[in-house]
Write a structure and sequence with these properties.
The protein is built from two helices and four strands, in the order ββαββα. By secondary structure, the protein is an alpha+beta fold. The protein has one domain. The two termini are 18 Å apart.
Length: 87
Amino acid sequence: MVNGVGMNKAGTGGVANKKQCSLLRLEITPDRIHFLKFILEGYDGLALLSTVDAGQGIVEIRYPSEIESDLKKLLQSIGPQIIKNIA
């Protein structure tokens, strides 16, 4: 967990001579999906965001394995702005 953001990591296979990507699945506040996408797009080549279930706020982030620590630092810093509110 990163600042209350649930994360599951799963490696994805790649073709020989291609860099491997990793996958994070997050559950965030649904109305903050656009914010996270905007932030990730600001870091050219850092990661790709896909929405799995917009109503539930479930997204997947694909990223090069070698930048995992940078991505986690970024997610930790913006975590309070994207965490799903628990009533």
